[in-house]
User: Which sequence fits this backbone?
């Protein structure tokens, strides 16, 4: 069911070998999503990067994008990190393979990713956006992401606008998760929630200063820390991919 370029037939076997690994990692992502759906103000969770693209290895982790209600980014990240750590699902420096990598959060009012482009086009970012796989998305945030990133249609005009997630790859809301979220979102929706948000931010900023001392000097678009986006891609390889893509595109044009 895949297309490939001439003299690239070997990628068929590579894809076939990846199928069971993708399935295993997606099931782990769903387990993580079933925990995260209890966290107040979390709107959606998407699998991205290598797992979403089907280009995985046994030692690969599971990158996710998490969408959080504006104004509660720090609080929800704090709770998400604790919960997945308790259930041994979160990636850390010692345990990487088959762990959920909590490295990218944005608020629901900041889903235009053109702000973090490294070039025009940022070829990796374009495909990254169109490869997002929703594992928890009760309010169809994916369609809102696509709407706010219409600029990608310039480069991928024929992509399918409707993505149907396999049922085994979805973590639908339960009555219990809805009830718990509703209670805490009501309780933490006002000034008390603002206080908790401020405290959660201070706690995490201290840790970030220890772990990311040079984030303002190096790879500015790889590591972003703000009240609307938390992006921790210290090894952001988009520039490398961009150069390789440009070289191949140029060689193909010359041929």
Assistant:
């Amino acid at each position: 069911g895949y297309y490939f370029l001439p003299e690239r037939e070997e990628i068929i076997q590579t894809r076939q070998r990846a199928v069971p690994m993708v399935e295993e990692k997606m099931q782990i992502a769903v387990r993580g999503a079933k925990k995260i759906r209890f966290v107040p103000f979390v709107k959606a969770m998407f699998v991205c990067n290598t797992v979403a693209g089907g280009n995985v290895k046994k030692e690969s982790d599971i990158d996710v994008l998490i969408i959080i209600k504006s104004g509660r980014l720090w609080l929800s990240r704090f709770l998400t990190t604790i919960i997945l750590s308790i259930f041994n699902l979160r990636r850390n420096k010692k345990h990487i393979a088959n762990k959920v990598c909590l490295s990218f959060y944005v608020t629901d009012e900041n889903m235009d990713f053109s702000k973090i482009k490294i070039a025009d086009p940022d070829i990796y970012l374009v495909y990254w956006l169109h490869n997002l796989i929703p594992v928890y998305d009760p309010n169809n945030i994916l369609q809102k992401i696509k709407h706010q990133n219409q600029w990608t249609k310039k480069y991928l005009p024929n992509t399918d606008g409707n993505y149907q997630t396999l049922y085994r790859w979805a973590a639908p809301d339960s009555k219990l998760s809805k009830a718990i979220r509703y209670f805490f979102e009501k309780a933490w929706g006002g000034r008390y929630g603002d206080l908790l948000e401020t405290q959660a931010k201070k706690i995490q900023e201290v840790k970030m200063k220890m772990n990311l001392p040079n984030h303002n000097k190096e790879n500015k678009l790889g590591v972003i820390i703000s009240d609307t986006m938390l992006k921790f891609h210290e090894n952001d390889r988009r520039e490398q991919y961009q150069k390789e893509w440009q070289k191949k595109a140029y060689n193909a044009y010359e041929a």
